[in-house]
Amino acid sequence: MSDTIKTSNFSQEFREEIFEEPGADKIALCFNCTGCSSGCPMTEQEPEFNIRKFLRMANLGMKDELLNNTYIWYCTTCYKCQERCPQGVHNVDALLKIRTIAVHNGIMLPVHKKVGQLVVNYGHAVPINDATKEKRKKLGLDEVPPTVHSFPDALDEVKTLLHIAGFDKIVAKEEEEK
Amino acid sequence: MSKLSFFLGCIAPNRYPCIEISTKKIMERLDVKLEELEGASCCPAPGVFRSFDKTTWLSLASRNIVLSEEIGNDILTVCNGCFGSLVDANLMLKEDAALKEDVNKMLSEIGREFKGTQDVRHIVEYLFQEVGVESIKNAVTNPIDLKVAVHYGCHLVKPSKERHLGNAENPTFFDELVEATGATSVDYEDKMACCGAGGGARTAVLDTTLHMTSNKLDHMVAAGVDCIVDACPFCHLQLDVGQTEIKKKFDKEYGIPVLHYSQLLGLAMGFTPEELGIDMNFVDNSKFIEKIRGGVK
Ligand code: SF4
Ligand code: SF4
């Protein structure tokens, strides 16, 4: 990438917001050793995904470039980078914070929104299906597990919490736009 | 007799109930009482929900913990994701009074309160630290003669500061538990590598994550293993369903059986493959089942 970086686009506010996350402020101590990115299993598959670069961008406050970079959703959160950083940067937690800021700016992958909607509707990110009900019966388990799936009051509690947190609105947005 | 709440999560009860039943069977044999955590929800999945909105993540996680606090039990998870989510939330709320107050404001709307009285455990670390390798060996009636690729998964050991399970680059506790069943834990290249599923990556970029999985499977095959043993239903899904996806997308067939540790130990305790649902994977395990029927010493 040889695009010119315009310092006028840097957002100090964005940088500070990320630095609120415990351990993310250590990004300021990063000396670019590449310890995080060189061992990253996702970078091995997709070189455009580069945790070191993303955190450098965060340190500069490159808000728009980061939030609209689809690769921020590629991290598997394996924590290998965070374990290895000699400067104690909480690499993964910082990236998750960047994702959070993206979500609160209305940027979210449609497939992730769907997973969110499953939790809003069923209390499970992976709800029961017929094939599994059959397997459960064969194994001598109740057809439906004793989770929110079996207790409507419990599901109501989950829905109440998601509503107070505003999560139902976050994942509902796209449907309204359609 | 020890007593724990069995936190099911999503993937175990709703895709791999074999893990749920196997856990119940082995814990009963080991004299650990499991109580159902009625009305529990998604943990919620850390990589996804924690990325979306920390308050949302904490509210659901704390509710799950509170359900167990109310019956005075520590929580048992059989999933690295649930473990990571609930351990992290529990720790944050125990250490940060202001955060706890915020979360309790939300919980008061459903008539609950987080107190911070209980701990969150993962079946593998619980068996290692509380039951002990010797007791497991004593519970084995049918030693298993298999070469096993142990897959720790990431969130069982990392971030290591919050897990207190020692070295995350080269741990041995899971291998010791596997070998307690009579099996051999075979070393393979890049053993601690991630399966590829976590952080919402499987949902976002399936094919890319399958390349990671495929690398891992290549290394296991090169080491000549009979099966994989893992500690997490999500890794389990990526490694098992993943093989069927890799076959379809990249025309590459592995046919490696994937077992959760509860299933391996169940076999060594004399339960049949069917009782443990080893025939219920998405990969066809029938040859493997024949082999263990004939080969169990
Ligand atoms: S946590 Fe994410 S960025 Fe870090 S090594 Fe793993 S995949 Fe790469
Ligand atoms: S490992 Fe730490 S210090 Fe090194 S480049 Fe990555 S974030 Fe910077």
CATH topology of the largest domain in chain B: Rossmann fold
Radius of gyration of chain A: 20 Å
Distance between the termini of chain A: 34 Å
Give the radius of gyration of chain B: 19 Å
Indicate the percent of residues in helices of chain B. Answer: 40-55%
Report the major sheet of chain A: none
Can you give the mean pLDDT of chain B?
Answer: 94
Q: What is the helix tally of chain A?
A: 11
Could you tell me the strand content of chain B as a percent range? 5-15%
Gap between N and C termini of chain B: 31 Å
Domain count of chain A, please report it: 2
DSSP, total strands of chain B: 8
**Judging from the principal axes of the Cα atoms, what is the shape of chain B?**
globular
CATH classification, class level of the largest domain in chain A? Mainly Alpha
Q: Which oligomerization state do the chains in this entry correspond to?
A: heterodimer
CATH class of the largest domain in chain B: Alpha Beta
**Biggest sheet record of chain B:** 4 strands, parallel
- Tell me the CATH architecture of the largest domain in chain A: Orthogonal Bundle
What is the CATH H-level superfamily of the largest domain in chain A?
A: Alpha-helical ferredoxin
How many β-strands of chain A, per DSSP? Answer: 0
